[in-house]
Amino acid sequence: MAQHIKFDTIIPILITSLLLSACATQPHKELSEVMRLQQQAQTNYNEGDLTQAQSDYLELTRVLPGDESNWFHLANTYARAGQLELAVNAYRHVLAHDATHAKAWHNLGVVLMQQSQAAFIQSARHAKADPEVQRASLNMGQALEALIHPSSPPASKQIAYPPPPVTDIEAPPPGAVRAP
C-alpha cells in the first residue's frame, strides 16, 4: 500500500511538472517566432517584396497590437507601395498611441503631400476649360514634387502633366501692331 500511495503522489507531481515546463517554454517559443517574423518582414521590406512585408507586418500587428514599431513599418510598406490611404491610417494609429513619434509625423506629412500632389495633377487634367486653374494646379503639383523629392530632376521632366491649353487665336509677335 505504501507504494500505491507513493505512485498516487508521484503522478500528480509529474503532471504538474510537465504542465509547468510546457508553460515555461511556450512564451519562449512564441517570442522566437515573433522575432523570426520581424526579421522576415524587415528582409522582405529591404528586398522590395512589399506584398510579403505587408503580410508579415499585418501579422505582427495582430500578434503584438501594442507594438507601435510594427505599425510604423506597416505604414512604410503601404507608403512605398503607393497605398496612401492605408499608410495615412497606419501612421495615424502610431501617432494616436505615441504623439511624439517624429518619424511617423514626418512620413505622414510626406504621404499627405503625395496625396495633395495627386489631387493637383487631377485638377490640371480636368481644368481644360479654365487655363488659370490648370496652370495653378500644375505649379502646385510641381512645387510639391520638388518638396517630396528634393534631389530629383525638375518635376516638369518627371511627371506627365497635361500639355498647356491650346488657344484658337495665335498671339502676334512682340512689337507687332494689330490691324483694327
TrEMBL record:
<dbReference type="Pfam" id="PF13414">
    <property type="entry name" value="TPR_11"/>
</dbReference>
<dbReference type="InterPro" id="IPR019734">
    <property type="entry name" value="TPR_rpt"/>
</dbReference>
<feature type="compositionally biased region" description="Pro residues">
    <location>
        <begin position="161"/>
        <end position="180"/>
    </location>
</feature>
<protein>
    <submittedName>
        <fullName>Uncharacterized protein</fullName>
    </submittedName>
</protein>
<dbReference type="InterPro" id="IPR011990">
    <property type="entry name" value="TPR-like_helical_dom_sf"/>
</dbReference>
<keyword id="KW-0802">TPR repeat</keyword>
<feature type="repeat" description="TPR">
    <location>
        <begin position="68"/>
        <end position="101"/>
    </location>
</feature>
<feature type="region of interest" description="Disordered">
    <location>
        <begin position="149"/>
        <end position="180"/>
    </location>
</feature>
